User: Fold this.
Amino acid sequence: ATERTLSIIKPDATNRNLTGKINAKFEDAGLRIVAQKRIKLSMEQAGKFYEVHKERPFYGELCEFMASAPVVVQVLEGDNAIAKNREVMGATNPANAEPGTIRKEFALSVGENSVHGSDAPETAAQEIAFFFSGLELVG
Ligand code: CMP
Assistant:
């Protein structure tokens, strides 16, 4: 079925000017970028977005990193978009990512891992609504 998922190109990737190369990976996989903006998150916004991880030992570091430089937030649409995006991203830890995936090619570490993608339909809907209004979604 056609789905939408929330994707974030993280500071390590925007810093290295990799937005276009990462978007090409999404488009080559058949994912359509139906909304996209480049923003700088505050610590508060990063903390709210990653609230589910607030008890994790890496939460502070994760929020500081996400607020350290601009990110590109985007909505990807396509058949099975959530799973397809996770396939294109590769494993969270680039050491475990398959060849050809974004994280294998570009990620620096488990923290500086270039991209985020929603993990399920419910979180996709929540995460899209966190960054975009309905008017900004142009299928
Ligand atoms: P993401 O998909 O954005 O969701 C939560 C993020 O936490 C994850 O990607 C990683 O970048 C980050 N993360 C997970 N484990 C660690 C860790 N051990 N140290 C630092 N960051 C981590």
